[in-house]
Design goal:
5 strands, alpha/beta, single chain, Rossmann fold
Length: about 220
Amino acid sequence: MPAVSAPRQLTLALGHSESFARDDFLRGASNAAALALVDDWPDWPSRIMAICGPQGAGKSHLAAIWGERAGARFLAGRSLDRDLPTAALATGALVLEDLAAGRLDEQALFHLINLARQDGAYVLLTARESPTRWPVGLPDLASRLRAIPVVTLEAPDDGLLAGVIAKLFADRQLVVDDALIRYLLARVERSIAAVRGAVERLDREAMQRRRPVSRALAAELYRDE
């Protein structure tokens, strides 16, 4: 007679609150320059700055810290169009998030940069790739982008990744031990996006199996990987 597997609990995708406060940003060698930029405002080398780095590296958190301090408006790069620049700069500070070549209105961005310079507004751009290397078709925009100082988020070290794992679990009201953190560090890709995925997976599996989040559960999930 075939074995009957234990039933899995049907779980609801309940939201959890991730804090973007300054005190909850974990500083490491990989993000120290970007954090210093945010903390040094308004003493910036240029009123328009860019923070670049891979998905999940901390760009949104840094932008949120600066945006709160500067009273900035937030706008997704893909939402920028020619009718928005004046309104977007109404507070004198703007976060333009997740910009990417090929997914933006070049004329609108060119107008925004010129208007920010004219009005003395502060603008923080976030992107995965440095805008200085974007293959834009508008020559005047290309020259403006090359003039923007860029701070790059580097690959995180073990200490930062361990802190991120602990924080992500804490955001879900879960306290985990060092053994689990060390186990995950040895088995997942060395990026913040990867450890975020591992935390989500463990939390989901723990709820479905009605078990605590632990090293033993992680070992079952990653045994054949």
